[in-house]
Backbone:
């Protein structure tokens, strides 16, 4: 009985057959791997081409919009065109405001794209983050209040001087506040700035739509918006937070967000080193 | 600067390495006339004898003996880009 269980010796022919089969299997895997590699290369080229095209289109659009803004500006402010009729003033002002928003929107997209490509040159200078946050907060507070939200800004006393690109840091603060306003249908926003040793922590706690587990890992990536985000914010591009991450990291800082889940509110953090 | 035949040998070994791993280099060391000088850099020398192309035949044969006909096709594909720089008489028989 025990002898039945003893395997018969494997002949050299069998070994050879098995070895050859294994070789063929491995060869197939290598061929497939090479195909995947080729496809990846093609995909990279296609993606790069698409990004370049988008960049060019946006440059063009920005040019047209800037020109349109000059036209509205001239109609409103240049005496040589005469006074704007009273019944047209509001529509001309609306046109000017809308085109200005458009120019800023495209500019943000282009800057974000340049930051991601590593082709953006930061203008480093001494920056007072307290002043940056106060200024951005003043501009955004009204939007929050217009929406019926409670808006609170708390800056802990301290020195908030850092070296950085003031314009881009201002934009990151505006983007973060704007993001919370847009995704908070009701409730409140608590914005704060505090110093923790050699770090500055900017924080926004909102009572908004919160973050799903699916969204969290892609939140700060380009195009990383939630599948339903455009139902809440029709202008959502998914670039605003990617821009914030790019700027924060360029300043050797970091950004992150916390949320207990959907409809549980969110807290966004941006930490920047003082030196 | 490696000769064309040395480049062919390196290319064949590297291609076999993709499939069977470091064993490809172990098997190459068993081929008389091939001297691996630096496996990490993928460098070797070959004895410069009257019929150097026969050393390539031995290398191709070494893999074929162990892994069968499929390995010969792999060696041929690996060497193909170099063959145009050799005269027909110098092309190893195993790669024709």
Residues:
């Amino acid at each position: 009985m025990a002898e039945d269980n003893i395997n018969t010796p494997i002949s050299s022919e069998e070994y050879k057959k098995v070895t050859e089969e294994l070789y063929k299997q491995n060869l197939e895997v290598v061929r497939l791997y090479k195909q995947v590699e080729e496809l990846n290369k093609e995909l990279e080229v296609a993606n790069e081409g698409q990004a370049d095209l988008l960049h060019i289109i946006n440059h063009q659009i920005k040019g047209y919009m800037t020109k349109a803004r000059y036209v509205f500006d001239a109609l409103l402010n240049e005496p040589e065109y005469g006074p704007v009729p009273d019944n047209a003033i509001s529509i001309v002002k609306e046109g000017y405001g809308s085109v200005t928003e458009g120019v800023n929107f495209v500019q943000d997209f282009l800057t974000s794209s340049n930051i991601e490509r590593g082709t953006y040159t930061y203008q480093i200078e001494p920056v007072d983050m307290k002043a940056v946050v106060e200024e951005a907060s003043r501009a955004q507070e009204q939007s929050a209040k217009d929406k019926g939200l409670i808006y609170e800004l708390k800056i802990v006393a301290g020195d908030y001087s850092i070296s950085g690109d003031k314009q881009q840091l201002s934009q990151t603060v505006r983007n973060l506040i704007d993001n919370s306003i847009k995704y908070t249908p009701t409730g409140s926003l608590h914005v704060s700035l505090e110093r923790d040793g050699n770090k500055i922590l900017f924080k926004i706690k909102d009572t908004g739509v919160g973050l799903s587990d699916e969204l969290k890992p892609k939140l700060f990536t380009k195009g990383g918006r939630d599948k339903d985000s455009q139902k809440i914010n029709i202008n959502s591009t998914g670039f605003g937070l990617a821009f914030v991450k790019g700027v924060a990291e360029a300043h050797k800082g970091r950004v992150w967000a916390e949320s207990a889940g959907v409809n549980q509110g969110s807290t966004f953090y941006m930490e920047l080193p003082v030196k | 600067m490696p000769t064309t035949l040395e480049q062919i040998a390196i290319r064949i070994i590297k291609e076999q390495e993709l499939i069977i791993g470091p064993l490809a280099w172990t098997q190459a060391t068993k081929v008389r006339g091939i001297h691996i000088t630096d496996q990490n850099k993928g460098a070797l020398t070959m004895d410069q004898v009257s019929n150097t192309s026969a050393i390539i035949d031995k290398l191709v044969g070494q893999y074929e003996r162990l892994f069968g006909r499929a390995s010969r096709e792999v060696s041929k594909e690996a060497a193909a880009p170099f063959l145009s720089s050799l005269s027909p008489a110098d092309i190893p028989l195993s790669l024709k």
